[in-house]
Amino acid sequence: TKRAGRNGYHFFEASMNVNAHNQLQWLQDLRMALERKEFLLHYQPKFNSPSGQVLGAEALLRWQHPTHGLVGPDEFIGLAERSGLIVPIGEWVLNEACRQMKVWFDMGHEDWTIAVNLSALQFAHADLIDLVKDTLSRHGLPARCLTLEVTESTAMHDAENSLKTLQKISDLGVDISIDDFGTGYSSLLYLKRLPANELKIDRGFIRDLADGNDDAAIISAIVALGRTLNLRIVAEGVETTKQQDFLTSVGCDALQGYLMGRPMTPEKFLEATSNLQNS
Ligand code: C2E
Ligand code: CA
Ligand code: CA
Ligand code: CA
């Protein structure tokens, strides 16, 4: 009936308003979050395979929201990207990660690297190279201690300009890691020209990994490709010893995942990794 229709419409409209309000509220909260110092970084260890030596950490953004508690990046990175707020937030991340890495460096972990994720918007931002250079020198951190992770799709978008940006990053002495590899559409020709140091196999391939299935074959192929192009191959999202054994057997150079270490506070990170190295 018309009435039911109207009710339906009103209901829909009401929920839309709730949604719109939520979005607006989240955006307002996000705008204030930097100033209110609500962001923090967790660090997930990365290990050499097969030696198990700690290679460093990936910095992963968290938001301590005043009412929602600890919020993960999947909940707000999209909004940060759409609103442009990811640029100042990303600046904060880079600075904080380099500051923390310098603390570890001064403690004697001079061979560690800190990996920082770059959003597509940051990657396209004209000031990126100066920002990276200035951040490193502000902390007195050698460029080799920093790795920047860009997703395969970000690196593929506007390929010619991406290559130029990646080359400038590489010229600084900063390593480049191609994240979520296998989900984009890189051509072999493009990969060959890419001044990258590392390919990070997308977690999806590792999650669905089983003996002799397609994902196992794809992973082996990516490792072979990495050998040919002289790129380090990293597997992330390693949750089981079975996955670990497979990835080691096909020759992945480094592993990351809940099995070996979750993202954690810098204090916990140091504790966990020093326990490992002393044992
Ligand atoms: P990513 O760069 O692919 O990071 C890996 C994600 O997988 C992280 O989720 C990590 O906690 C999670 N992970 C690691 N090991 C395992 C595992 O064994 N099993 C499972 N199920 N998950 C695992 P997180 O921290 O929620 O981050 C999600 C995404 O948010 C990241 O994906 C990255 O794209 C983005 N992100 C995180 N921090 C930043 C940042 O500072 N800047 C930007 N632009 N993006 C960020
Ligand atoms: Ca990453
Ligand atoms: Ca990834
Ligand atoms: Ca991802």
TrEMBL record:
Domain EAL: 23-277
Highest taxon, organism lineage: Bacteria
The name this protein goes by in its record: EAL domain-containing protein
Organism in which the protein naturally occurs: Herbaspirillum rhizosphaerae
Lineage: Bacteria, Pseudomonadati, Pseudomonadota, Betaproteobacteria, Burkholderiales
